[in-house]
Amino acid sequence: MDFTYSEEQQMLADSLRRFIDTEYTFEARRKSARAGKSLDRGVWNKLAEMGVLGLTVPADFGGFGEGPASQLVVQRELGRGLVLEPVTPSGVMAAAILAAHGSAAQKEQWLPAIASGERIVTLAYLEPTTRYRPESARASAERSGDGYVLNGIKSVVWHGAAADAYLLTARVAGSNEIALFLVPRDSKGLGVTAYPTVDGLRAADLSLQDVTVPANALVGQPADGLAALGVGLEHGVAALCAEGAGAMEKLIEITAEYLGTRQQFGKPLASFQALQHRMADMLVQKELALSMAYVAVQALDEADPAARRRMLSAAKVTLARAGRFVGQQAVQLHGGMGMTDELSVGDYFKRLTMLDQLLGDSDYHLQRFGEVMEA
Asked: Which residues of 261-291 are buried (b: 16+ CB within 10 A; e: fewer)?
């Protein structure tokens, strides 16, 4: 796979960076985060107009039909700007699931709406007792007439309060099958409790009490739930790796600028060799994370499921380790100021920390990597 930006990809990256630098400023982002908003409709519509939300949606359904490499370009720029809006859960993960496993009616109804920004769809697969393993879901789906009745709890639903619908996992009663359902937000019996996360985004817990959905709410067949969910999770991991690389890149630039202007003993901090070495170490870690982000994107085109899991887990673990190192070094190199809320350094560090927890932490992916290698 060639990761040299094409002319179209470079234009997209340039326009995104220009939009973030001029309109999606850090001050505006922080104001929204502190106001408890992780979705600005003006920003969301602008991202849709730029083609970000429909980038990988098939052209037949209002998207651009681009491949994973173009998604890396977008996510890298979004990471640089710490963009709050739910691009990854809706425009990447949900779109990938529906494109691969959705029925013709589901694709027709939801994919154009996702691409245009009219509708937001997110995943609801975590539960208080499942950790990152969706196969242990306890939410139930019981057949009733021509539909299903859903009961249970879903936790830490990414951008759950902003979503118009959820791709929700539930165990089919009387079987060991985990099915995936497309559940509208306004379904009777569905409760949503929203709360902020440490990085300024929002999540929600869902409670399902006798939520009735028609049979056509199923994504694929009842036995296809885990496979369909896996498509979304794999695309999400690749997106997070690219986002993290972009965030590290910007954080290094911020730190280099600070060291170049802050004076000590009559000269800039950047002139001290020990600090230069630490900046070099940060750059090495960022380049390593970016290289593994390329690996993660390449994995999405890998036909062998075992190789795909191995590549994605390796990239996710590398992202977490590099993000922790770069974030800690940036805070320390800013001295006492790095510990305050006044600077943007802390916001980048918090986001990099949360990227480790999303879609499987380091422990989970290390175990999964080991299982693949042992097999």
From this structure: eeeeeeeebbeeeebeebbeebeebbebbbe
Opening angle at CA 333, ends 330 and 338, nearest 5: 70
CATH of residue 295: 1.20.140.10
pTM listed for this prediction: 0.95
Contact by Cβ (8 Å): 173, 138:
no
pLDDT tens digits along 296-351? 999 999 999 999 999 999 999 999 999 999 999 999 999 878 778 888 999 999 99
123-174 pLDDT per residue, tens: 999 999 998 999 999 999 999 999 999 999 999 999 999 999 999 999 999 8
Note whether 182 and 254 are same-domain residues: no
Would you say 78 and 16 are in contact if contact means Cβ atoms under 8 Å apart?
Answer: yes
CATH number at residue 59: 1.10.540.10
